C-alpha cells in the first residue's frame, strides 16, 4: 500500500471576512502527502452544508449525490474537503478528482483520490491522532499509514 500522511491545521482565519458577505468557512486546512511517486494535495475541511455548495464539476456533483445517498450528512460533526493537487516547484494548485472525509468524533479519516494525471488512484481509511504540541504552523491532527517513530 502506498504511504500517505495527512496533517490538519486549525484555520486561523475561520469565520473571518474576505469580502462583503463572504466568510472563510473551513474549520481545518491541511496537506496530504504521498510517497512513490511523491505527490502533495491540499485540503480544506468544511461542514457538509458548506462543502456541498463548493462542488463545481459533474464528478463533484456525482460525489455529493453518492455521499448523500450513503447518509453522510446525518453524521454529527463530520467534515469534508475537495482536493487540490499542489505542485511545489511552480506553486500551482489544480483541482483533482477526489474527496476527504474527517470524522472527529470517531477519529477516522477517509480519502479517495482519482487523479491519473499524477499517478494517484486509490482510497485510504486512516485513524486520526491528535497532536500534543499545537500552535502556529503545528498540526492539530495527523492521519497516516506510516510508523512515525
Fold and architecture overview:
This protein is mainly beta and 149 residues long. 11% of the residues lie in helices and 48% in strands. It has 2 helices and 10 strands, in the order βββββααβββββ. Strands 1-4-5-6-7-8-9-10 form an 8-stranded antiparallel barrel. It is globular, with a radius of gyration of 15 Å.
Count of β-strands: 10
* Unreliable spans: none
Largest sheet report = 8 strands, antiparallel, barrel
Strand % is over 45%
* Sheet/helix structural class: mainly beta
What would the principal axes of the Cα set say about the shape?
A: globular
> What is the spatial order of strands in the main beta sheet?
1-4-5-6-7-8-9-10
Helical content, roughly? 10-25%
Radius of gyration, whole Å: 15 Å
**Span of the ends, CA to CA:** 19 Å
Number of helices: 2
Count of the separate structural domains: 1
